[in-house]
Amino acid sequence: MPILRQVVEIDEELCDGCGLCIPACHEGALQLVDGKAKLVSDVYCDGLGSCLGECPQGAIRIIERVADEFSEEAVAERLQKTGRTAEAHEEHMHHAPAREARAGAEQAEPLPCGCPGSLSQSLQRGHEAQSYSSGNPHTSGLPQLENWPVQIKLAPLNAPYFQEADILLAADCAPFAFANFHEQFIRGKVVLIGCPKLDDAEFYVHKLAHIFANNDIRSVEVAFMEVPCCGGLVQIAQQALAESKQPIELMLTKVGIRGDIQLKHTVPAVKP
Fold it and tell me: Which domain CATH number covers 149?
């Protein structure tokens, strides 16, 4: 029976038919048709967006619309017909409750791109950081990064480190302009970076909205540069918060190209 729920939507104009999203979908809901990725049927799509981070063109997003209910039985039948193993699907379906049990663990799930450098991880600090600093004469402080990956497009939607997190949404130029970025900005934060001018802003809005809506996020700080185009990151954050309908406090910090902080402003959380 059709209900209002979240499903994926593919922009055919952006899709170049690379096919990378196909194996990323654990339910087999996507396939290439006439050189474009297509959603085969609503019943196969669980709306969790495992395929989002795989699309290099940003052609996939999650929307809310009236759609047929997701059916595990239909998925199992499809996987059997297409010759894909059901084990991966079963592991994926049980992954969400398992995340909470694994919160704080060093290693999370690998991202669908399969790149070792994109492996989702919670980085443990303490003795490791002390050893890193004392063993390297060129370091002048301890690294504070606690999560990987940091690029918005590569970030998983429901990583354990998002639970009860304070998120730092940073323009990717900001760490190069501000000398003590790790200590002043990154400490105690989950870091996500992007460029509002060079990247797909609409994709970022929808992905961040999903992260905000489906994880217990405590606050969001946006570290953006003084250059006009960088203000787009503020708009991305504001639109994502509005779309998520979550009462999350927003802090805006503008960094000058000479390394000074030009503005700090807090926007109180507003209940929808």
Answer: 3.40.50
Give the gyration radius of the chain's Cα atoms.
20
Residue type at 130? Answer: Q
Does 99 fall in a domain?
A: no
In this structure, are residues 224 and 255 in contact, taking their beta carbons and an 8 Å threshold?
Answer: yes
User: Which residue in 86, 87, 39, 43 sits closest to 60, CA to CA?
Assistant: 39
Length of the chain: 272
Alpha carbons 248 and 159: distance in angstroms, whole number? 18
| 70 and 181 assigned to the same domain | no
Instruction: Work out how many domains the chain is built from and give that number.
Output: 2
Q: What is the separation of C-alpha 177 from the centre of its chain, rounded to a whole number of angstroms?
A: 24
Q: Is the pLDDT of residue 138 over 90?
A: no
In tens, the pLDDT along 36-51 reads: 999 999 999 988 877 8
Task: Check whether 88 has a pLDDT greater than 80.
Answer: no
pLDDT of residue 119: 62
Residue 130 has pLDDT above 50, yes or no: no
